[in-house]
Design goal:
Layout (H helix, E strand, L loop, with lengths): L3 E9 L18 H21 L1 E11 L7 H14 L7 E6 L6 H9 L4 E7 L3 H6 L6 H13 L4 E8 L6 H14 L3 E6 L7 H7 L7 H17 L3 E4 L2 E3 L6 H7 L5 E3 L4 E4 L2 E5 L3 H9 L5 E6 L2 H12 L6 E2 L7 H9 L3 E4 L2 E4 L1 H4 L2 H9 L1
Helix pairs in contact: 1-2, 1-10, 2-3, 6-8, 11-14
């Protein structure tokens, strides 16, 4: 045993449809492939348990679309993990879901197997924009699914939203925020659409079909912060707003630099100064895991300054900020940002101002340059 691991991530790469803006490793899956993949995940956890003391506090199922798994597959995965792991200290089990893939029986199964938090990928309450985004659900389906999760007794529900969608007006975004607030979720994640390389959307941007308006994006972000704050949500991280006590514990641990293990194709793991990525191929990942082999494809040895800088780049995006005492290596650059009004004192910490949040990536760059 070489350490105690408290946070586990599972990448479920299967999706009903590949979205044109998504750059994650995903694929459409067959049911036979899914079944073998579940066995591979469990085998990989079993092997990891021989090397690490796995005592999870948080478990996160991302993707892809974890909720696209059939009920018997989810039962096999969630039940199998309970046989392999000690759940006595687990505080949060999160699962990402597509509204088109959650029926009442599946929601009840998730609740029965200890899922405490579901992140529902709504993106918009406007059907025309959902079509633009290539989503397989409608606004009505998303609302029905939200109520289904509540009725099943899922303790916390997050609604994922996206702004600056091509063709989206400020009025449409404001209506989406108002509708979301009225539903009463525990947590709201709001993401500005980014044009990632090797996506259909990036090709349309570079080809001139789509045009990015930075000022429009900034105004929508500013409106988002003000609207959700007025509704009682704390912006505890640039893109994440929560009711008091409803922050994502898994994501907070990740941003604060905790060790974690990732399972599934393309999943990253970071333990101390070691980082590795699992092979980005579901079939090969499955083969290796079932054979009891290591599933990692790339490995990296970080330096202490690199790791400290990475963590600082995440933490500066959080509302708590970072203790000044930890920022000495970047004091000169940070002083310039303070003069520009991008940073402010928060007790003994330094954090982004409202204006600074709009330029958070520029500030974070100094830590990883």
């Amino acid at each position: 045993m070489t350490g105690s691991i408290r946070h586990l991530y599972f990448h479920i790469p299967f999706c009903p449809k590949l979205c044109p803006y998504c750059s994650f490793y995903v694929e459409t899956g067959s049911q036979n492939k899914n079944a073998a993949f579940i066995d591979a995940l469990l085998a990989d956890v079993r092997r990891a348990g021989e090397e690490y003391d796995l005592r999870p506090k948080t478990i996160y199922f991302g993707g892809g679309t974890p909720s696209a798994l059939r009920e018997e597959q989810l039962e096999r995965l969630l039940g199998g993990l309970r046989e392999l792991l000690d759940f006595s200290e687990v505080e949060e089990v999160s699962l990402e879901a597509n509204p088109a893939t959650v029926k009442p029986s599946k929601a009840r199964l998730l609740q029965a197997h200890g899922v405490t938090r579901v992140s529902l990928g709504v993106q918009s309450w406007d059907d025309a924009l959902l079509k633009t985004l290539g989503r397989v659900h409608t606004a009505a389906t998303a609302e029905e699914t939200y109520h289904t999760l509540r009725e099943a007794g899922i303790p916390a529900v997050n609604l994922d939203l996206m702004f600056s969608v091509p063709g989206q007006t400020a009025a449409q975004w404001h209506a989406t925020l108002a509708k979301t607030i009225a539903l009463g979720p525990d947590h709201i994640s709001t993401y500005c659409l980014t044009y990632e390389e090797d996506t259909e959307y990036f090709r349309k941007l570079t080809g001139g079909t789509f045009v990015q308006d930075i000022e429009h994006d900034a105004q929508l972000f500013e409106d988002t912060m003000a609207t959700l704050a007025a509704a009682g949500f704390e912006q505890y991280e640039i893109s994440n707003h929560a009711r008091p006590g409803c922050e994502s514990r898994h994501n907070r641990a990740y941003w604060l630099g905790a060790d974690y293990l990732g399972f599934g194709p393309s999943a990253y793991s970071t333990v101390g100064l070691r980082r590795w990525e699992a092979v980005r191929d579901t079939a090969e990942y499955t083969r290796r895991a079932l054979a009891g082999e290591r599933t990692s494809e790339t490995r990296e040895e970080l330096t202490e300054p690199q790791r400290i800088g990475e963590i600082a780049a995440f933490r500066i995006r959080m509302s708590d900020g970072i203790p000044r005492a930890e920022l000495a290596p970047w004091a000169e650059d940070l002083a310039k940002f303070e003069k520009l009004g991008l940073l402010e004192n928060h007790g003994a910490n330094l954090r982004l101002t409202t204006h600074g949040k709009m330029l958070a990536d520029s500030v974070a760059e100094i830590f990883v340059a």
